[in-house]
Write a structure and sequence with these properties.
The protein has 103 residues and is mainly β. Helix content is 0%, strand content 27%. The strands form 4 sheets. A two-stranded antiparallel ribbon has the order 1-2. Strands 3-4 form a two-stranded antiparallel ribbon. A two-stranded antiparallel ribbon has the order 5-6. The radius of gyration is 17 Å and the shape is elongated.
């Protein structure tokens, strides 16, 4: 990061980086060590830091917070409209109530 006029500015798209913190807002450091534009909702991802700020990586796709309906696969309750998840037969899905949620 560089600071100019009391403002910190990260590396720009296409510039070399060592980690996400090196890149400016809206960018992440990809596998080739270059700052790259964050992935949009629905795009493939490997981790949360690759997704745009209103989303995280859920089952290898960028998913918006609180956007999944009951019964949809979810790696974290933060994706579920209900904020609850349930596990059944090894699958974790959004659930309608806390009674169905694992500990």
């Amino acid at each position: 990061m560089n600071c100019q006029n009391n403002k910190c500015i990260g590396k720009q798209e296409g510039e070399q980086c060592e980690g996400n913190i090196d890149c400016d807002v809206g960018l992440y450091c990809d596998k080739s060590k270059k700052c790259t534009i964050l992935k949009q909702i629905g795009e493939d991802c490997d981790n949360d830091q690759q997704c745009e700020t209103i989303a995280r990586c859920n089952n290898k796709k960028c998913v918006k917070y609180l956007s999944l309906n009951d019964g949809e696969l979810s790696s974290n309750r933060i994706f579920c409209k209900s904020m609850f998840i349930a596990e059944k037969d090894g699958e974790v899905t959004c659930a309608s109530s806390k009674r169905n949620s694992p500990n």
